Amino acid sequence: MLRIHEDMLEAIRMMRGMIAAIEKRDADLTRQLRRAASSVVLNIAEGGGSFGRVRTARYRTALGSARESLSCLRTAEAFGYVEPMPHALVAVMNRVIGTLVRVAA
Fold first, then answer.
1. Cα–Cα distance between 41 and 5 in angstroms, integer?
2. What are 53-72's pLDDT values in tens digits?
3. Which domains does the chain have, with CATH numbers?
């Protein structure tokens, strides 16, 4: 399985406080963020056990969900629901997205 599986789980742990803060202001955005972040981890795991086009499809889905997760967090920042994302979280998300760009090609 790709190392980014664990990276994304760590990103979710880092998001906990932000998710709690967003939930107080926008339950819909919170649900979308949770679904997207979960989708990244689950599709990475599923892709790791797949072959050929199915593997590529799972990694592409994970990539889209990773970008969606990051966009949810940036949207919450823009609305003033949360402070800017910690640099460590941005770095992990960039690593996840960068790896998925390479393996989903």
1. 6
2. 999 999 999 999 999 999 99
3. 4-103 (1.20.1440.60)
